[in-house]
Specification:
Blueprint lengths: L1 E2 L8 E2 L3 E7 L5 H14 L4 E5 L4 H12 L7 E5 L13 E3 L6 H17 L5 E5 L1 H7 L2 H17 L3 E7 L5 H8 L4 E8 L2 E7 L9 E2 L1
Length: 211
């Protein structure tokens, strides 16, 4: 089980769980995912992030800012942004040419998960965002890729979090993608601010929680 010390409507999540984090833009999806990742890092779970929009430095800063530390060692990043950068020589940072390269994303993320598992971590893994994949590939291709990816998370007894912009896709596409996941975190923003709720997890209160 993955314990959660943040304000979350369930005390723990079973290993091997894949959760879709879905909501409109600016509703706090990425921030909520970073909160869960940082919480896990503090518990020595380790973190692997597949990022299509923010580079490794931004991902690193998002975690360290929440932990109030200068650096973290148990963090691996698969950078799919296509941004050019100097070779780091760090085996925790992997670069894939673009979100179009699903084979490369799968290989590099699986290798990082294996590497962190071998080092004694049980990495919480995030994919931010699936909407970028759906810009480059049709829903059937993305579905097949995610079927393998989520299965890899399940086999590793890890925790997977995946963001999806609810405004960017039609209902049929969103429904197809949702079928792959064990549960869902929905986010929203209204006059009172941002909120989220959890659907499909055992013991979870599915009421809205402000964050």
């Amino acid at each position: 089980m993955y314990s959660l010390d943040i304000d979350f409507p369930t005390d723990a999540i079973a290993g091997g769980t894949n959760l879709l984090v879905v909501g409109p833009s600016m509703s706090g999806k990425r921030g909520l995912v970073l909160d869960v990742l940082a919480d896990g890092y503090a518990d020595d779970d380790g973190v692997v992030v597949v990022t299509t929009q923010n580079g490794p430095d931004e991902v690193h800063d998002g975690i360290t800012d929440r932990l109030d530390v200068d650096s973290v060692s148990g963090l691996g990043v698969v950078d799919c942004t296509g941004q050019e950068g100097p070779a780091s020589g760090d085996d925790r940072i992997r670069r894939v040419s673009s979100p179009r390269d699903l084979t490369g994303i799968g290989m590099e993320s699986s290798d990082l998960i294996d590497m962190f598992t071998d080092r004694g971590y049980r990495p919480r893994t995030a994919f931010d965002s699936l909407s970028q994949l759906l810009m480059y590939a049709d829903v059937k291709t993305v579905f097949r890729f995610l079927h393998i990816f989520t299965g890899r998370i399940g086999a590793a007894d890890a925790l997977g979090l995946y963001t999806l912009d609810s405004e960017a896709h039609d209902e049929q596409t969103a429904h197809t993608i949702r079928q792959l996941f064990d549960g869902m975190i929905q986010t929203k923003v209204d006059d009172d601010g941002r909120a989220f709720r959890v659907r499909g997890l055992p013991g979870a209160d599915d009421g809205w929680t402000r964050f």
